[in-house]
Structures are given as structure tokens and as C-alpha cells.
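so my prof wants the structure for this chain in the C-alpha cells format not the other one, which i didnt know existed until like an hour ago. anyway here's the sequence
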Amino acid sequence: MRAYRAVLLGTTLAVAAAVANTAAPDAAVKPAPRPPAGIAPAQRRAFFGELHLHTTMSFDAWVSGTKVTPDMAYRFARGETVMIPIAQVAKEQGVKSTADAIPARRAWPLDFTAVTDHSEYLGAVAQLDVPGSRFSQSAFGKQMAKGTRQQFFEGARVIEGEKGPNADDMRAAAEDANGWAVEMKAANANYRPGKFTTFIGYEWTASPGQGIHMHRNVIFNADHAPAPFTGVDSNKPEALWKYLESVRAQGIDVLAIPHNSNLSDGRDFDWNTSEGRPIDAAYAQRRAINEPLVEISQTKGTSETTPELSPADEFASFQIMDRIYKGETAPNQHGSYVREAYGRGLVIQSGVGVNPFKMGVVGGSDIHNGLTTSDEGAYAGGGAFGTDPRTMASSEAVARAALDMTGQSKIVRPSGQNENDPLQLGSAGITGVWAEQNTRESIFAALKRKETFGTSGTRIRVRMFGGWALGPGLLQKADWVKQAYAHGVPMGGDLPARPRGATAPSLALQAMKDPTGANLDRIQVVKVWLDGKGYKEKVFDVALSGGRRDDPKTGKAPPVGDTVDLKTGAYANTIGAPALSAVWRDPEFNPKVAAVYYARVLEIPTPRWTTLLALRSHLPIPTRGPATLQERAWTSPIWFTPG
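here's what i got, hopefully its the right format
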């Protein structure tokens, strides 16, 4: 286990002491007020948060050295300084440490967070940290305490959602850990209505085959929830939906968010159910209700589309995990990416009357050290086990391992998959919502109505409205947002019936740069529409910075430029624009054809985490992956269905 955990130790063991003092405790938690009836939709604000995070309570996080608890994770997310316990990790790896714990603080606080530890044997392995626990005294516990990570997976098969040969020991350890009570207590203790919102949640970690992800994050809108339904209970989404429906019957609202569809081997957006039957109306309706969102970006790649699925999209090759993988067989792309799901949803709807893939989008991290970070410069490689390298006294050896220059960080999973070329991974994504208040009720309502957007980690703020009477001068009006809500629908919604005489719908779009980040290159609209028994797609540039225009021959705009200095990692906002906006009318609209529209916003080029880490550590910039990237945001779609 030592070779694998070297990267984690570099990111967790050496956080510098030059960190601001811990903030004073907030006042006692008060019951969250419901959004006042007087708050109009036009007063909704953008809030940024994390809906996919793991702590020491997750099997694979503990195995990889994480000691951060759910309570610590929430405090870090909301901007407090937390002390990261490192003495035990150092001892296990034979590294000298002069401190028991080190301070860490997030670069900027999030507005909301859900810790989503793996529900399978929740907290069981962390019982090895409890002296005299039943698990530490069991034969399997002793084996795990000194075994390798691969042996852990083979012995427990926890993440594959199977009943492994040591399931009884794991179940007993989970009972002793009382992990669900720990998770709920941490979420409630850190809820600060109006300042910082927490959600009780967990990850349902089902894998119908080795290395195949059909994982879902389950988010509750309550201060309590029944015990999780796990991937050991069933690896079929339909069984999870039955659990969610039973939870709602108890008066607790809940939803599930698929993630890493890019690793689902075509299962997440299949034409068929998990039983192999064609999707019918009842199945489509259940899925649409239980899974209204999908995670489009995280450390293990983006799930929007690929160059193979969207060959005409010049920006399709962004953080595609299986494209940066070396020596691996790429998983089945069909049925694994969100844009294709939108097209398949239209096809299925044309046959059964209901769209099963009517999903809004969110972003997440899937970070497993409990410390949610999303800035490109705040990722240090090593899979999902990195914290801010700007505050680390990391050695050259640690950086080499993170950039995989030594070849020692490779691990073979039980499936035989080579998991750990760090360059295949990216920095974390985040979720944006438009909500009235920073409370559970308000933010959860935004999630349910899909007034959401996901980003690759940047704090781009983007809005999109659709309607039949959104004129070209709308954005010049001081109350344009109020008028857009009054005469249109926000992202996540359905266009109303086409009025008599209306020729085509218009989309009103506005995007603003990250307050401390890069300027914007462009806003694009991605349209997917029904075409016979299939579908087609097209990307339109609707707002370009610098006065650029699409070439009438190629349909492409000239590149925005590139100011990145690969000797220093610096870039300049001398190109691009701090804000972009447009009212765009579909020039190819057919009122008889169902369609779906979403927006994509691109920043100007900036250095990728691999470049920043290499420069910081005085190492060559890796050539196996891109040195720069264009961070981006994606909106939830707006759907059109013919009357």
C-alpha cells in the first residue's frame, strides 16, 4: 500500500502552517426558514456547492490514508481552518513527522455541501482506528491492517457492491461504527441557514460488472433519513428508486444523481432497463422523477460527450478520461455520455410518450480525502486524494509520483484495469444553482426544478431562459431577468406550447467570469433534435469575445488566443471578456420536431493542474496530456415538445 499512498501523503502530510486562524464558531443552529413567499424568482442568486465528497467513513478513502471525518469535511468546505491528522498515516508509511496534525483551509468557501460517503459498510474500515474494536481483533481486520489495497478490494469487494467472503466481519464493523448517525449528526451540526447549507447524503455504489460504474449520489432534503439502501442490497437502479419512493412516502424528499456515466460502459443511458427490457412509459416516468440530475464533470473526467460521438464539435475533447488513459481499452462510449442521452431521451419519448433522460446537470469532485477543492491550482494529482499544493511543502519525489514520472503509482484493480495514471484525471467540478436563499429548502427546490449548472471547477455564473417572446433587446433592460421569468422558462424547464404566429423560440443567455479567474472566450448553444428514428446535434456560437465572428465557410470562429506562459504558469486577461450575453433565435427550428437546448460557456486557455504542479516542483511539464485547458460551464437544458 505504501507506493500508492505516497501521493496522498504528500498532499495530506505537508500542508504548511502559514494558514489563517480558524474562524470563530458560528451561533447555534436555528431551524431553517422556508423561502418567504415575497421572494420573486427574479431575486434568485447563484450559489456554488459540492454534492460528491468522501471522508474516512468511505472504505476506499480510509484504505488510502484519509483520516478526515465528515464534521471536518463540512468545516473545511465552509471556510474554516481544520487540523488534518497525519501522525498515524506517517507512521504507517514510515515517514517522519514532527506534528500530530497540520492546518488546512479552503481558498474560498462553498455555499453548500453534501458529504456522500459510500453506503456499503459505511464506517466499517475506520473501526481499525478504534483500539480494541471487534473489527481490529478479527482475522480479516488484522489482514487489512497490514495488507495491500488490492487485497482489501479482493477481500471485501465493497466498492463493487458485492457480498464478499468477509461480508460478515464488514457488516459487524459497520454496525459498531454507527456510520449513518455520524453522517447525519455532522450535516446537521454544520448547517448554517443563510450562510452555509448542508445536505444529508450518501453514495449508492453499485457496479453490475467489474470496473463498471452505475453509481448514484443520494441527497435528502431533511435533518434525518432512513438507513441507506446500498449496492450490496441491489445493484439495480430500479431497486434504488423503490427505496427513494418509500422515503418520500415517509414525508422526506430525496433524489439520486448518477455520476461517472463515462465509466458506465453504456449502462447509464441504455435503451433498455437493467433487466434488458426496452424502456416503457412507466420506467421512463420513474427515472425522470427519481433522477432529475446528472453529474457532468468531476475528477474522473467529463461526461458531456467525446470527439467520437460528436466529431463536428471542436471542443468535445475536454478532460475525457479514456482518451488520456494509456494502454487501456476505452469503455463503451454509446450510452455513457450526457449529450447522447439527451438525444436518446427524445427518441424514447417519441415512442412511449415520456423522456427518461430529462436531466439537469451538476458538477462534483469525488475527492476522497474529505477536503473539497475545485481550483485548477488546488489539485495535486494522485487520483481523488489531493489538497491545495500551494500550501504544501511537497518534495520532488511526491510531485514526480503525482505526475507519474516514476511509474510507481500504477495500481491494477481486481478487474485488471490499470487505474492510476494521474494525467487521466482532472481537477474537481462544482455545482451552481439559482435559488432564493442559502437554505436546504431553497437549494433543494432548485435542484428538483433543475435550475442548475455544472462547471469544471471555475465559478462561472451562467443563466439561460427560453421563450417565444424574448426579443433581441431584452438584455438591455434593467429588469430583464424579471421579464425572462415572466415570458419564458429558466434552464431545466419546458418551453410552453408554441403560440400562433411564433416562428422559433429564443434563448436569453448571460455568463460572467469567475471573480478571481479567467475571462470568457464564448457562449455556445448545443442543440439536439429528433431525426426520424434517431437524432442529430449541432453546436452554435452565440456570443464571442473580442468582436470575432464565425467564418461563413467553416462555421467556426477563430481561436480566442492563448496567453499562458509555460515557463511560469501565468496567464493574462488581456483576451476574452469578463461577461458575455446574447438573445439567440434558433435559425433551423422545425415546429414539428422535438428538440433540447443547453448552453456551454468556455474560458480563455489557462494552465492545467499538471503544468502548475510541474512548474512548482521544478519538473518538466508532462507531454502525455494537455498543458493548458479551457475551463467551462454547462447549463441544464430547455426542452421543446411539439403540440
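also thought this was worth mentioning. The first helix runs from residue 2 to 12.
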